[in-house]
Amino acid sequence: MGRLVYLDNLRSFALLLGIVFHAAIVYAAEIKYAIQDTNRSDILSYFCYWIHSYRMPMFYMISGFFSALVLEKKGTKFYLEARFKRVLIPTIFGLIFLAPIQYYLTERLKTNTLELLPFLNYFFTKDHFQHSHIWFLVDLFCFSILYTLIPKSFFTLKFWDKIPKGLPRYLLLLAFCFLFVFFSHSQISKGESYYGIFKLTFIFQFSFFLIGVFSYHWKTILIQKDNNSKIKTLAIFVWAIVVYLLFKDMEIDDPLWIYFQYVNVWVRGFHIFLWVLSPFLWTSFLVFIFQIMGNKEGKLGSYLIEASLPIYLVHHPISLMYAFWIRDIEWGIWVKFSLHIIVVLGGSFFLYEFLIRKIKPLRILFGLKTT
Fold it and tell me: What is the DSSP string of 42-109?
């Protein structure tokens, strides 16, 4: 299997799309966020729900795929060493120096005279410590460790060969993901957390990580050798939109933080099914698009692949600081939103290009190779 450039680019796209998401959510109606503008937009609400419906599950699916690839070709030792360098170190750095910024700013909205050191003493305690946008790295590192504990023979059992390739395997993975999340949710609500790790979200994302591992071994979903016809791809796109719109309504009408025991089981089951189905459809569609438009190596693509993680890590504090500063300025919402993206992108790329990329200790802290 040669290098799958389109998957590298798609993974970078998923991370960098988060920059736009965290800018849009400040101005989105119907969505609660750390810092929000007084003027909200329904359009941006739809946009945020669309990104939310597939972005992180797709990212974890691709991460699981590459985890299986690296583990098979390089071995467990190499894989774990790489995860410690590329994931654990940025996680620790982010939790200590970047995550507190979000919660300090939100507390400043309540108490304008709040000083930093007393806040940090309060924040770094068992009851108040949270991960902010670093949650995805915390989960990714945990997924990587859990994956190495699963016998690799499980993913290559001869039993799986009895399942026809194509749609039957696709549906089996969808069913596995749905049942895994559904039965977990019967015991856990979306709001329950353990040291900042939200239990149901963790299980949901881990199921997609495992789907990515299966995708590697079965050569499905993320590898489409037959290149879907345009009609088939259009059908997937249409269904993805329908599922997303239904999912958005369910997120509002049937919030998952309400315990399973207090809701209609069929409605909640349908909600979870949509929650699982949407990433499958959008990932299938975007894989097809990136196989056509994002499958060539180039300087820009290589630059963004390396830059995506550091830029994602620094963009969130910049985004929140800008939102904190601009929230009371009476500009139009679209002017604010446009400037928000420009400021965050400009600031993030500036920090990466002139500091993180060029200073060796920072390269280590942000998970970049030093050679």
Answer: HHHHHHHHHHHTTHHHHHHHHHHHHHHHHHHHH-HHHHHHHHIIIIIHHHHHIIIIIHHHHHHHHHHH
Q: What is the mean pLDDT of residues 33-45?
A: 92
pLDDT (average), residues 87-97: 97
- Provide CB contacts within 8 A for 304, sequence distance 6+: 9, 12, 16
Burial class (CB within 10 angstroms; exposed 0-12, middle 13-18, buried 19+) of 168: exposed
Phi, psi dihedrals of residue 167, rounded to the nearest 5°: -60, -40
CA distance 243 to 235: 12
- Quote the DSSP letter at residue 41: B
Please tell me the predicted confidence (pLDDT) of residue 278. Answer: 97
Calculated CA dihedral for residues 147, 287, 2, 86, nearest 10 degrees = -40
**Length of the chain, in residues:** 371
The pTM (predicted TM-score) of the whole model is 0.94
Q: Which of 191, 188, 181 is nearest to 260 (CA)?
A: 188
Other residues' Cβ atoms within 10 Å of the Cβ of residue 336: 20
Query: CA 302, 320, 312: angle at the middle one, nearest 5?
Result: 15
257 falls in which pLDDT band (50, 70, 90)? confident
C-alpha dihedral sign at 25, 20, 58, 244: positive
With contact defined as beta carbons under 8 Å apart, do 8 and 304 qualify?
Answer: no
Residue type, 193: S
CB 174 within 8 A of CB 284: no
Tell me the pLDDT tens digit for each residue of 231-253.
888 999 999 999 999 999 999 89
Check: CB of residue 93 under 8 Å from CB of residue 322. no
The predicted structure's pLDDT at residue 361: 96
The two three-digit tokens of residue 331, written as one number: 């500009």
Distance CA 170, CA 173 (A): 5
